[in-house]
Amino acid sequence: MRRLEGKVAIVTGAGQGVGQGIAFALAAEGAKVVVTGRTLKKLESSCAEITKRGGEALAVECDIKDRTALASLVSASVKHYGGIQILVNNAQEVPLGSLHEIEDEALSAGFESGPIATFRLMKLCYPHLKGDGCIINLASSAGKRWDMSGYGGYAATKEAIRSLSRAAACEWGKDGIRTNVILPHALSPGLEWWINDRPEEAAAYLASIPMQRLGDCEDDIGKFVVSLCSEDSRYVNGQSIALDGGQAFLG
């Protein structure tokens, strides 16, 4: 029997990159996956690939900055599949640049799509997750960089997600809900853009990874998420886990 047979998962930002890789991996282990994001065409492409591989998926277009859209996402998921056991908060707009470069609007969008959307969706899913639920939130090791130049806004949003996740783990553990955070490095479209835009910085970044490579969205990140959501990890709660080839020391 597949490890997540009978489970229903919501994965935000599942139209491409890390979110898509996680959705593929969850579906391969038997989960019915609600793939959500802003671009329906990308979501339908992810669903088509899951179906092609023998899995089951539902595409739901959703702007995670919209509180009403998040509520509709949860309702549609429960109506279609009958429940929710796994929530993966992956999607986020990223405010990159120095403090002088980042506009208020970009920082606000980072918080709205990151910690605020995570906060809202965790609470909306809570009644359905009770008893046997698993939340995986995505953060970044940017908050642990030795030089924070150019990453202050981004790191601030991701560290807020880690704090909210730890609180959820402590408050909801008694309700049968586990909450953990992953901090992945993977060759997503966003990271490819960054590598092309900042080649010298990207080369130094890659050289600082002990394993000397970036992760694969499905095989390295998605399959770990499967393990974290399975019975194999039933006593893992409140942790931040770097999936980065050994680069970060969370301390």
UniProtKB/TrEMBL annotation:
It comes from Zhongshania antarctica. This is NAD(P)-dependent dehydrogenase (Short-subunit alcohol dehydrogenase family). Keywords: Oxidoreductase. InterPro entries: NAD(P)-bd_dom_sf (IPR036291), Sc_DH/Rdtase_CS (IPR020904), SDR_fam (IPR002347). Gene3D superfamilies: NAD(P)-binding Rossmann-like Domain. Transmembrane segments: none annotated. Belongs to the short-chain dehydrogenases/reductases (SDR) family. CDD domains: SDR_c. It holds the Pfam family adh_short_C2. It comes from the Bacteria. GO terms for molecular function: oxidoreductase activity. The keyword Transmembrane does not apply. The keyword Isomerase does not apply.
